[in-house]
Design a protein that fits this description.
This protein is α/β, with parallel strands linked by helices and about 300 residues long. The longest helix is centred in the last third of the chain and has 16 residues. It is globular and about 50 Å long. The chain is about 35% helix and about 25% strand.
Length: about 300
C-alpha cells in the first residue's frame, strides 16, 4: 500500500507558442481543465500501475473539489483521508505549455495551504501502515514532517516546489527525488548542468539514504551511499506536454519500491512511465496504466 500526503488542484491549461516575458501578453491557443496537484497526480500514477493508494489532503467545498474527489475515486484511490474545507477554495494550477512542450506553472494553494499535522494525524493508520509514504512540498511543511515521523515504511520525498529543508526532515527521507533545479536549491548552489555538477551537489546533502535526480530527456541518476552512481536512460520520445511527467515518474518509482524492487530497477520502469506521460496533454489524463508501461 502507498499513502500519499499532498496537494489536490484543478489545472487550467493553456497552450502558447511561447511563454510571456514580464509585462507581456501573448495570445494563447485552446485551453482545458483537468485534475491535478502533485499529490493527487502521484496517487493516480501509482494506482493506475496497480497499487492500493490512500490520498491525504484537502479540497474546498466547491465544484472543483468535488470534481477532484470523483476523479480519484474513478481511479480507485481511497479518499477517506481528504478533508473538505468550507473555509477555503480548492487549489488551482495555472499552466502554460509552449510549442517545445515546456511548461510554466503558477499554483494558488487554496485549501492545500490549510493542511496541517492534524490532518496527517487523522490518517495516522494509513501513514504508519503504508509500505511507501510519498510526499511533496505543495502543502505546509509541518504536515510533510509529521507524515515522515509517523511513517514506518519507505519515505519518498519529491522536493517540489523547491525550497531549503530542515535537516530533521531530510534525515527521515529514504529516497529523495529532485530535478536539477530542486537539487540546486537544496544544496544552496546554482542549478547543476553537467553530470559532475549533479554528483557534486547531491553529495553535499546529508540525510537521505538514496537520491534519484531526474534529468528530463536524459533520464535519471541514482546515488546510494558510497556506491557508484547509476545512470538510467530515458526512452527517446517527441514530447507534447511535460506537466505530468515528473509525477508519473514518482508514482511509478513508489510503485516499484512498494513491490520490493531494487531502486535502480524501479527507476528504469519509472523513466518509461514519465516518458509516456510527456507524450500526452495534461497531468492526470497523461498518466499511463501498468499495461502501457509494460508494453513500452
Amino acid at each position: 500500500m502507498i499513502t500519499v500526503i499532498g496537494s489536490l488542484n484543478q489545472d487550467i491549461v493553456v497552450r502558447v507558442t511561447r511563454h510571456p516575458k514580464p509585462g507581456e501578453t501573448v495570445l494563447g491557443k485552446d485551453h482545458f481543465v483537468a485534475a491535478g496537484g502533485k499529490g493527487a497526480n502521484q496517487a493516480v500514477a501509482a494506482s493506475r500501475l496497480g497499487q492500493a493508494v490512500t490520498m491525504v489532503g484537502r479540497v474546498g467545498d466547491d465544484d472543483a473539489g468535488r470534481m477532484l474527489l470523483a476523479g480519484l475515486a474513478d481511479d480507485a484511490v481511497d479518499t477517506s483521508g481528504v478533508a473538505v474545507d468550507d473555509g477555503a477554495g480548492t487549489g488551482i494550477d495555472f499552466i502554460t505549455v509552449d510549442d517545445q512542450a515546456e511548461n510554466a506553472i503558477v499554483v494558488s494553494p487554496g485549501a492545500n495551504g490549510r493542511m496541517s499535522a492534524a490532518d496527517v494525524d487523522r490518517a495516522a493508520a494509513a501513514v504508519s501502515e503504508a509500505v511507501v509514504v510519498l510526499l511533496q512540498l505543495e502543502v505546509p511543511l509541518d504536515a510533510v514532517s509529521r507524515a515522515a515521523t509517523l511513517a514506518t515504511g519507505v519515505v519518498m520525498l519529491d522536493p517540489a516546489p523547491a525550497r531549503a529543508l530542515p535537516q530533521e526532515l531530510l534525515s527521515r527521507v529514504d529516497v529523495l527525488v529532485p530535478n536539477r533545479s530542486e537539487l540546486g536549491v537544496l544544496a544552496g548552489q546554482p542549478e547543476p548542468t553537467t553530470t559532475g555538477d549533479v554528483l557534486a551537489a547531491a553529495r553535499t546533502l546529508r540525510g537521505p539514504d538514496a537520491i534519484v535526480v531526474t534529468l528530463g530527456a536524459e533520464g535519471a541518476l541514482v546515488l546510494r551511499g558510497g556506491e557508484p552512481p547509476v545512470a538510467v536512460a530515458a526512452p527517446v520520445i517527441e514530447p507534447v506536454d511535460t506537466v505530468g511527467a515528473g509525477d508519473a515518474f514518482c508514482g511509478a518509482l513508489a510503485d516499484g519500491l512498494a513491490r520490493g524492487q531494487d531502486l535502480v530497477a524501479a527507476c528504469r520502469r519509472a523513466v518509461v512511465a514519465g516518458a509516456i506521460a510527456a507524450t500526452r496533454p495534461g497531468a492526470q489524463p497523461s498518466l499511463p496504466t501498468a499495461a502501457e508501461v509494460q508494453a513500452a
